[in-house]
UniProtKB/TrEMBL annotation:
Matches recorded under PANTHER family: ALPHA_BETA-HYDROLASES SUPERFAMILY PROTEIN, HYDROLASE
Organism classification: Bacteria, Bacillati, Actinomycetota, Actinomycetes, Propionibacteriales
Transmembrane segments: none
Protein name (Swiss-Prot/TrEMBL): Pimeloyl-ACP methyl ester carboxylesterase
InterPro entries per record: AB_hydrolase_1 (IPR000073), AB_hydrolase_fold (IPR029058)
Domain AB hydrolase-1: residue ranges: 74-315
Pfam families: Abhydrolase_6 (PF12697)
Domain of life (superkingdom): Bacteria
Gene3D superfamilies attached to this UniProt entry: alpha/beta hydrolase
Amino acid sequence: MNKSTRVATTAGAFVAAGVAATLLNGRQRHKRQLRRGEEVEFGSVHSAKLTVTASDGVKIHAEVDEGPRKTPTVVFIHGWVETLDVWHYQRLALRDKVRMVFLDQRSHGLSGRSHVDNSSIDQLADDLNTVLSELVPRGPIILVGHSLGGMAIMELAAAKPELFGKRVKGVALIATSSGRLARGSPALRRLLPLVRVASPVLDWGRAFNSYSIIRRWGLGPNALERHVDMTNEMILQAPTHVLMDFSPLFIDLDLEHTLKTVGKASTIVIGGSHDLLTPLKHSRRLANHIPGARLVAIEDGGHMLPFEANQQVSEAIESLVEELR
């Protein structure tokens, strides 16, 4: 067998093995979906699609669930490689109780793709401000952010401090951080160097045993299988460029200077004791530096608290709503 034949044979075997692994993973994923036993299927809770045009022309997908008159509007901002479906349980729990706005952050979900130069925390805050201007032009606002969504809220406090206390009356920061993540998060310390050297192979490789990887790094030790599977399904929908374009954002992130402004709104910080991406000490730091903030620590909770601790998260948001009634 000559060299060319050996290379072709090896490559063919590699591809065949990869295809087989992908098919097996797909079958296992389908079986887990059948086992979920959800009353309301994940990904099925939506309202009419709206489009908001960002300052650089990117189309931001949003949805509005109308509620009773004279209630605040709760605006939900999801995290990195997520979609607005991360609020599945909160959307069901709060429907018909309060007006809600959901958005897919740029390059995520149904929103348009951002140029890499605008995949930045200040642009995400600017997008959020544009959504507020167009979809919540009046009345009190409660901002709810998970992970990267919480960071966008903090940056908005720096860019538009006049909003906080005047229109933004409540804030919920869930499994998020104001900075020092490259040093303080074991999962990000391992992930970020890999993402920086990623190649097109990453698109394929992400699907290999993704369920086990996400269970290990994304959720707590007692997370239900359906919550791991919902996370897995959502994250695998995100194109690899979302991983690559936004990863530099976390390296030098520093939002400490925004926290006094955030504290002009009634603030709840929620963190999980087993969160490896934004460890609980980051939530404690936020609660200590945001004036008047309340900390809710979820025992054994991982990073995906909107799923894992959905009832506690929904109750925390409801408590902010009740304060404004």
